[in-house]
Structures are given as C-alpha cells and as structure tokens.
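User: Hi! I'm working on a homework problem where we have to compare a predicted structure to a textbook description. Could you give me the structure for the chain below?
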Amino acid sequence: MVDEQNGLIVHCDVVAENNDRGQFSNQIDEAQQTLKKPCEVACADAGYSNAETLAPVDQQGIRVIVPSEDQVHPEERGPFDKSGFQYVAEDDVYLCPAGQKLPCRHHEADRGRWAYGLLGKTCRLCEHFGACTTSRLGRKLIRYDNEAFREKMRHEYDKPSSRAIFSRRKETAELPFGHIKRNLGAGHFLIRGLEGARAEMSLLASCFNVARLIGIFGVSCLLEKLGKLG
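Assistant: Happy to help. Predicted structure tokens:
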C-alpha cells in the first residue's frame, strides 16, 4: 500500500495465496492503522476485484476505485450479452431484447447467486433462437446476491475522475516494485518460509522508504528530522 502524496510504502505484506483477490480490505485496514488516520480513496488494479473484500472498505465511507477484469480488458459485446438484458427490480425479472420476461427460478446459496430463465419452448419459438442461446432449455442469466454493489463499483470506475486517479496508480503503486527489483537487485526472496519472506519484504520496503525520504528532504534535512524523533 502506497500513499499518493509522497509515494511512500505505508504497509506491505507477503501472503501464501495465488492471487490478490482476497487481500484488499485487510491491506487497507493495516495501512490505516499505520497512518493513524482514515483512508479517503482506495485504488487497486483489477487483480483485487472481489466484491466480498471491496464491500467492507466501501462500508467505511472510503471511495473505492477497483475495475473489474472486463473493464480493463473489454471485449466486444453482442446484442444478446447480459448487458443487453434490463433488470426490473420491482418485478424481479430481466427483460430480454425481444421483450420476454426472465423470472427468477432458484437461488444457488452456496455460490451466492440467483438463476433467471425462460422456458425452453419460449426461446425455441423466438426469432433470435440460435443467436441469443442454442440451449433447448432456454436462455439463463445469473444475478449475484451483491449484484447492486458490483454495479456500483463499475459505475465508480467509469467516472472520469476515477479514471484519472487510477492512471496515477501506476506512478505510485508500481514504482516501488521497479526500484526494489532493479535498483536494489531484489528479484526474488533469499529467505525461505512465509515469516522469513515477510521480514525480508519489510526490510526492502524500509530501504525504499529511506531512499524516497532522502529524495524528498535531502540527507541533511532528513537526518535532522530523524534526530528530533530520538
């Protein structure tokens, strides 16, 4: 976690996970404890896009800017993509491009989502059968329990001000990786084990921050400030 104003690492960690999707809320909480102040805007790349871990941060009143994978790497969508179906909240149905209503069929509690669909006969008689769906059981749609929050996050990222903040993320959050790997020559961990790797990462982050502070204050001014802390 890096602060935007000075580009300093305010929190770092090493975890035994194969992706970042479960890390967002934990890292924000740790960074806030370090700074002793609440975060105003939290921004991360699409690798952290997970509604379950973004929601706790949003509930703190923090502006969350994290795009979904398809927002960062958009693909051309056809007329029968889910985005072409309108959700009618008061009736709890989706309207398909042909005007048919897809009612809620069942809830998949273990996956946190609802299934919506038409009867196969309705779809087979539609002029769009074969393009919209080829299933003889009819077109099906999925709506997640937290679908409204997912849409909120999508709309937040689409704001011009959010895009501007997200573009600055590369200059702040990615810079430490380049410095640590190239300038400090730390392309891999030297210590085995999770705790050892965490300790090594903390040392590397401290080295980065010292170099950054020298760039901000200069050596003599930094030594003076550090002397006052003692």
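For your comparison, note the following. The longest strand covers residues 101-108. The mean pLDDT is 92. Good luck with the assignment!
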